[in-house]
Amino acid sequence: MALEHAILVSLLEQPGSGYELARRFDRSIGRFWTATHQQIYRVLRRMEADGWIAAQEVAQDGRPDKKVYSAAGPGRDALAAWLREPVEPETVRHELAVKIRAAAFDDPGALISEVERHRESHAALLARYLHGEQRDFPDLSALDTRQELQHVVLRGGIEYERMTLAWLDDVLATLRRLSAGG
Amino acid sequence: MALEHAILVSLLEQPGSGYELARRFDRSIGRFWTATHQQIYRVLRRMEADGWIAAQEVAQDGRPDKKVYSAAGPGRDALAAWLREPVEPETVRHELAVKIRAAAFDDPGALISEVERHRESHAALLARYLHGEQRDFPDLSALDTRQELQHVVLRGGIEYERMTLAWLDDVLATLRRLSAGG
DNA sequence: ATTGCCTATGCAACTCGTTGCATAGCAGGA
DNA sequence: TCCTGCTATGCAACGAGTTGCATAGGCAAT
Fold first, then answer.
1. Considering the entire predicted model, what is its pTM?
2. Going residue by residue through chain A (182 aa), what tens digit of pLDDT does each one get?
3. What distance in Å separates the CA atoms of residue B78 and residue B8, rounded to the nearest whole number?
């Protein structure tokens, strides 16, 4: 389980409430680790009970109070220990690949609009990555350690999206060829 | 949920027992959809109850009897309906990316051997893909629809592994630079 | 005025996925 | 001979993840 660790990293980068974490997971972090607010609140309570993080009540005017969490010593230790553990292989759930093989038993042409939709969403994500890179890393020759590591992860995301776009074009060409009766 | 659908596709390509399906999921299909034998048996029972698949008891000598499943009419219908439904966005769980960002709060050098291990396993998988391509698709100019679709999925796997290898090299270079104190 | 959205946290119920264990006969090697 | 491993199926318990709903005040637009 790595949701705890993903939350720890996020809190080390910047303390925040459960709600704020949920929004971060929707945006940046969620690109390589998804989580709903329910999961986050549940795990935060457990982590606080275990002493990994500390909470501070913050009163706000005009909106509900919030609990701002930050990483504590035992949390840092747990993260360091986890870093040294061997990682489990990534489990992939590529639904579109299942659909493509399923199309052999139905009409390949029925998948085209679906694949086009995927292509658009990957193109949009790539554009967002590139925009975020410009905004957050304007000068690539002056990055500290944290930024270097954030940037190498971002580069992975960018390359993944580029590769996926090229592959989806390949898939579309194949589907069009097959449904045209080629 | 798409485990049902992945199983249906596999049974349409070739009928088989739960045990055989589990091994297929370990090998080919498992590269884009993982499942343990427990999940598979549980889902097979449900699918049989729903009439999606039909079972036939097969006695064997020297080994336990098995139940060979094959896709039934309602299963094909369900698959066709699913093909036409919009797909949920793929949820990614990229633990290594979390670790890389976590390394900013510990020693980046501690991650190097971990990343090297990943690199090796991706290189091995790429080699297996390429070997499987040679074996299963010796003549790329004479493929039927099913093989065309299987091959375009395989091409996706190959490109994914190539991209991942290049990225892991990038990660390694970055980690080495940072831990050398550059 | 009312509708709908945003911040902020949480309960309850459910499904999905994993882990450990059990059975049971057969084959092969130390 | 004992141990390991393969085929083949399954139970039980747990942990992870999702979905629907609830509360509750404030803001902005219709």
1. 0.93
2. 789 999 999 999 999 999 999 999 988 777 788 899 999 999 999 999 999 999 999 988 778 889 999 999 999 999 999 999 888 777 778 999 999 999 999 999 999 999 999 999 999 999 999 999 999 999 999 999 999 999 999 999 999 999 999 999 999 999 999 998 76
3. 9
Residue B108 backbone dihedrals phi, psi, to 5 degrees: -55, -30
Contact B87, A114 (CB under 8 A): yes
Q: What angle do CA A19, A23, A26 make, to 5 degrees?
A: 140
Residue positions counted in chain B: 182
**Residue B170: its chain A contacts at CB < 8 A?**
152, 155-156
* Chain A residues lying within 8 Å of B105, measured CB to CB: 9, 12, 76, 79
Which of B41, B44, B14 has the alpha carbon at shortest distance from B29?
B14
| B150 with A104: Cβ contact below 8 A | yes
CB B19 within 8 A of CB B66: yes
Joined together, the tokens standing for residue B111 give 């991650």
